[in-house]
Amino acid sequence: MPPVPVIVRHRPGRRRHGAASALLALLAALAGTGAAAAQATLKLATWNLEWFLTPATFNELKGACTRNDRAHRWQPRSIPCDVAATLERSAIDIGAMARIARVLNADLVALEEVDGAAAAGQVFHGYDFCFTGGRTVQNTGFAIRRGLPHRCGPDLLELSLGDELRRGATLVLYPGSARELHLLAVHLKSGCARGSLSSRNHACGRLARQAPALHDWLAAERRAGHRYAVLGDFNRDLLHERGEGLWERIGADTNEARLFNTAAGGFFRNCYAGQIHTGYIDYILLGDSLAPTLVPGSFERWVYAPTAAWRLKLSDHCPVAVRLRLD
User: Fold this and answer.
1) What is the rounded CA–CA span in Å between residue 152 and residue 279?
2) From the CB of residue 7, how many other CB atoms can be counted at a distance below 10 Å?
3) Closest-CA residue to 249 (of 218, 280, 224)
4) Cα–Cα distance for residue pair 245/242, rounded to 1 Å
5) Average pLDDT in the chain
6) Residue 234, CA atoms < 13 Å, CB-side half-sphere
7) Is residue 19 pLDDT above 90, yes or no?
8) How far apart are the C-alpha atoms of 128 and 121, rounded to whole Å?
9) What is the pTM of this model?
10) Of residues 43, 156, 195, 58, the one with CA closest to residue 104
11) d(CA 233, CA 46)
12) Which of 56, 85, 107, 142 lies at 20 to 30 Å from 122 by C-alpha?
């Protein structure tokens, strides 16, 4: 067990330092659980768990790891050799991640880079799961607090470009009721964090090819009159794009999609010391009919306490969360 809390809640514009502040943040989060529930809110989060498998599956795959992207494409049920060498998690690591999930206390979490329900169940206790059905060990899905009415939807296959990339996961919360929400979890192509989608960069070109599938899902949800959101790992700094951007390609500022970025205007902080990122790539984007339910000031990013990040194999991403009013 680490000597300090595993994560620290960070709200935009605030800074926290040291183990004492981390402990206060953890206690405040635990104390506020009942009060938040009484306010009839729904807490949404997204978290990329970074190549997260069960220990048995990891042990099975590490001996036949793949050494390059081409080999991995031929063997989608594989892990890269650098992952096999450095990211085998112990029971202590998994237990620490489970504590993060418990303190995060979200009603619904979009999950990325997770092998499936068996792997996710090691971290999210008391949750149901909906995951994409790709052969890869990096599936996308949702953890849904047990008891929340929901219906797992079909995979958004078009997002995967023929299963070369990751599929999108769809979910309906509160189906058939006045509270019905339509959700899409994504994990988009990496390697094009800010560059123009019309550039010759290979990664940017593949991300550009994913944009129509995302645009079409958003447009269909808006035409249907649904309340909708898309959340997950976009591998894209949507707040600082250069040239022709993904935000433009998916019609986020038009009546086709009309999205609100819950991270807009916030102060960015890396998940742990040593990371060199300068902006968010994990987002919760709300459709215009859902955006008015956002609880003001509820956006938060949970960052890893320094000692925990140094000692444990957690993830290179940390959770992002918001609250929505259910009334």
Assistant:
1) 31
2) 27
3) 218
4) 7
5) 90
6) 27
7) no
8) 8
9) 0.90
10) 43
11) 8
12) 85
**CATH classification (class only), 7-325:** alpha beta
What secondary structure letter does DSSP report for 158?
G
φ/ψ of residue 203, rounded to 5: -65, -40
pLDDT at 266: 82
SS3 168: strand
Distance CA 25, CA 103 (A): 10
- Check if the beta carbon of residue 112 is closer than 8 Å to that of residue 48: yes
Per-residue model confidence as pLDDT tens digits over 243-274: 999 999 999 999 999 999 999 988 899 999 89
Burial-class residue 136 by CB neighbours within 10 Å (0-12, 13-18, 19+).
buried
How distant, in Å, are the alpha carbons of 68, 102, 144, 293 from that of 128?
A: 34, 14, 5, 24
**Which tokens belong to 42?**
């729904």
Contact 324, 285 (CB under 8 A): no
DSSP symbol at 286: E
Half-sphere exposure of 5 (CA within 13 A, CB side): 24
Of the candidates 276, 167, 283, the residue with the CA atom closest to the CA atom of residue 235? 283
Amino acid at 324: L
Residue 22, sorted as left (phi over 0), alpha (psi -120 to 50) or beta, turns out to be alpha
Which tokens hold the place of 11?
């709200």
CA–CA distances in Å: residue 146 to residues 30, 102, 125, 187, 273: 19, 14, 9, 24, 35
Q: How far apart are CA 16 and CA 110, in angstroms?
A: 26
Rounded Cα–Cα distance for residues 77 and 115 (Å):
10
Tell me the per-residue pLDDT of 45-101, one tens digit each, with 9 for 90 and over.
999 999 999 999 999 999 999 998 888 778 889 999 999 999 999 999 999 999 999
Question: And the tokens for 161?
Answer: 């470009």
Domain boundaries, the chain: 7-325
pLDDT in tens, 189-239: 999 999 999 999 999 999 999 999 999 999 999 999 999 999 999 999 999
